[in-house]
Design a protein that fits this description.
Elements: H1 11-23, H2 28-34
């Protein structure tokens, strides 16, 4: 399932964002990916 970093309204992106937050909130790569 592809991820759309440019589409924050996408449910897939939001779901993966929550997973990333719970998995590794201290990674700078995740921070850039989330925002």
């Amino acid at each position: 399932q592809p991820v759309y970093p440019g589409e924050p309204n996408r449910p897939e992106n939001r779901r993966i964002t929550i997973v990333a937050l719970g998995a590794a909130p201290a990674l700078p790569s995740d921070a850039s990916f989330k925002f």
